[in-house]
Fold fumarylacetoacetase.
Amino acid sequence: MTLFGPETLPYGVFSTPGGARRIGVRLGDAVLDLARAEADDLILAGGALRQPSLNVLMALGRPQWTAIRARVAELAPDLPAIPLADVELHLPFEVADYTDFYSSEHHATNVGRILRPDRPGLQPNWKHLPIGYHGRAATVVVSGTPIARPAGQLGPGEYGPSRRLDIEAEVGFVVGVPGRRLRTADLAEHVFGVVLVNDWSARDIQAYEYQPLGPFLGKSFATSVSPWVVPLEAFAPVEPPAQDPAPHDYLLPPGPALDIRLRVEWNGTEVSSPPYAQMYWTPAQQLAHLTSNGALVRTGDLFASGTVSGPERSQAGSFLELTWNGAEPVRLADGTTRGFLLDGDTVTISATAAGAGGTTIGLGSVTGTVCP
Amino acid sequence: MTLFGPETLPYGVFSTPGGARRIGVRLGDAVLDLARAEADDLILAGGALRQPSLNVLMALGRPQWTAIRARVAELAPDLPAIPLADVELHLPFEVADYTDFYSSEHHATNVGRILRPDRPGLQPNWKHLPIGYHGRAATVVVSGTPIARPAGQLGPGEYGPSRRLDIEAEVGFVVGVPGRRLRTADLAEHVFGVVLVNDWSARDIQAYEYQPLGPFLGKSFATSVSPWVVPLEAFAPVEPPAQDPAPHDYLLPPGPALDIRLRVEWNGTEVSSPPYAQMYWTPAQQLAHLTSNGALVRTGDLFASGTVSGPERSQAGSFLELTWNGAEPVRLADGTTRGFLLDGDTVTISATAAGAGGTTIGLGSVTGTVCP
């Protein structure tokens, strides 16, 4: 059974050798050429499908997204299909602002224990609001882009290449329709779709710099995203975990969770399976919080869930947690062990999810190899 | 003597009633229409002056910036001039990433004392690296835009409009030419010019949310910039303050400081005069630090100095410091007193600077009025 049947139909941007960037939809192991389909008047989208990125399509809004998706599903068997192996995939959208949350209770508690052992794992504000920060939009890159190990200040008097290079397995939400002061019920009107995110992190740079204004160079060198944006309506909504204490009114109702099951491979060895469905704060709450102060979200905004970690060690979404800051290395299939990333290491995060109508859909993967 | 003589010539984007946005240069109390000048073949800039924002011009690079500036100065008496009073000024560039530093030792020490009275004012890392964070590019607005008081979580169990709405008087640097891993000596090749910045801040929202990932909603509702971008070459470089301990090699040489003298007016009463020349970290060091990990800066990036505060209370760049968190209110000319901003209050930050050749140049002003 394919994870990319007619119930998934994710959007991406591809090119063939020597050709320009075009919008396509993945079906099985092929890409349907939507630019050609619109040029041939098979789909009417006002030119939105004849663009080098998804931004114009994403700005159209939910009714058009639904209509175009239905039309693509209907036409799929007859649309020009190019084998995936013959195309190059590109960053699917131009990133406006990139915001990263911190919404796994297990992750926040683990990181607190590791980085601030003298204080409680969870900060007092954590269950009252979805903690987040702004990241660097310029360094969001598509899956497959090599990750150059960053250099920086690693501690008092120390400068050099990071020795604690890490990943963060996350789920990202891509905004289509701009807005301010959104309610949680507005999620589906504004969010176009979902990608996988690896928020690469240099833990030593981060630990030295982050007081008092938060992560900066420890995270701004690269953030990788999967090339396929899975439409929000492809997912079967599920019940989110209970929240105690009850959040403020502007964060209610919480909106749905998504049952996305991540899988982290380190040089081909599966080391972790983080469960997104257990995240404490939902994407609807993150979007409502983000815009509650009047801040504008724009077409192309990316907001990420924060590291997805479950209660078990084998569900950790970062190597900081998986190896407990390097103290408990993991063994890979080739017999070597790892605390943090070595040059040449490859990390691939893939995922499947509960799809509408009881199906299982694919989100594809986001991969990257560390170079010196 | 005008502050906008031929030694200043800042760039902006203007429109006349019913007209499109055009690039202009300020000379005295008039705007020289550069779009028309290029259309008339008086200046050759490859179309860069016939754009609705400065971004294409800013991407050309230093040799072209210098050549165009010289040509504008030469032609100025003969160029079509529109009275300032007849134009509307717009955000002069499209903001790519917005980064805010924290480079005044006096400000960092004051804020530390106010917010974290149990610990030393300055964090241990502060003199080793220019601390900074990413802000929200979407909410950078031009001077004159009304500032809606943000609502948010003000503390445990409290939600409502901010009661401690504040300003931060800053100097902003606008990137023209993209780059990574820049040296401090690269500043003038990459930075196009300078604006004034008011980084509006809701201190109660910020204080509750900022641990552990830094400022988020407390600052993301609005950041105002002055409409005129003053070219870097209009400034006379001055010696920056000595740094002890010596910074790491990648932050040396420190590059020049700029002698920019800010002035903060609260409802027309001058309440503060922050001296930019005394900032501990220079813009060249901020740019080198920002890109040292491989992060990309792009055309339209804005990086701001951080609040400019001098050693005296009358040199504070924020009301948090000026009124010591509201405990020592200031008296305005109308006899009323203020701790933080009330609805209807107007703040105007203006500045002059030491210009090349012993002149004094103007940076204009950034203003905003608080509405409920």
In short: The longest strand of chain B covers residues 360-371. Chain B has a mean pLDDT of 97.
